[in-house]
Amino acid sequence: MSVHYSNQITPDLDNPLILPFWEACQRHELVAQHCPSCDTLRFPPLSICANCWSENQAWTRIEPFATLWSFVIYRRAMNPAFADEIPYAIGRVKTDAGPVFETRLAIPLDEIEIGMPLVASFRDVNADFSLLQFEKR
Fold first, then answer.
1. How far is 37 from 55, CA to CA, in rounded Å?
2. What is each CA distance from 27 to 3, 61, 117, 122, in whole angstroms?
3. Residue pLDDT tens, the chain, 137 long
4. Within 13 Å and on the Cβ side, how many CA atoms surround 49?
5. Domain 19-136 has what CATH class?
6. Of 129, 131, 88, which Cα lies nearest the Cα of 107?
7. Judging by DSSP bridges, how do beta strands 100-105 and 129-136 pair with one another?
């Protein structure tokens, strides 16, 4: 499936809390924040561990496999920058490692099913930004 992504909107690549995630996306690697104190994986990242309250944090590569929990199909652009991309799907995806991501689905809209097995993939939007998305496994 070919999907066009706008160069007009990108995340805050200067935010140190999430920057390691976006750097990994540039390398086409799926990562999650890891608490070395209690061995908990999490996403989105936090400045402290929600499990043990430790301020220690690290990032670790996780396997790209996941299952689709839920999804929504956008048929109207909530932001003009996405007008050329309508319709598109956003999914809530639970990775086999545990962390849950809300991300773009690179799947034909009529083939999306709750519970379907997925694999992470990455779309290079521009020289500085690659977008995490999931496609059919």
1. 9
2. 20, 11, 23, 9
3. 444 555 557 788 889 999 999 999 999 999 999 999 999 999 999 999 999 999 999 999 999 999 999 999 999 998 888 888 999 999 999 999 999 999 999 999 999 999 999 999 999 988 888 999 999 99
4. 19
5. mainly beta
6. 88
7. parallel
Domain boundaries, the chain: 19-136
Which residues are CB-neighbours of 134 under 8 A, at least 6 positions away?
Answer: 66, 68, 91, 93, 101, 103, 104, 105, 106, 107, 118, 119, 120, 121
Pull the structure tokens for residue 134: 């999931």
Sign of CA dihedral 8, 13, 19, 20: positive
0.85 exceeded by pTM: yes
Overall size of the chain counted in residues: 137
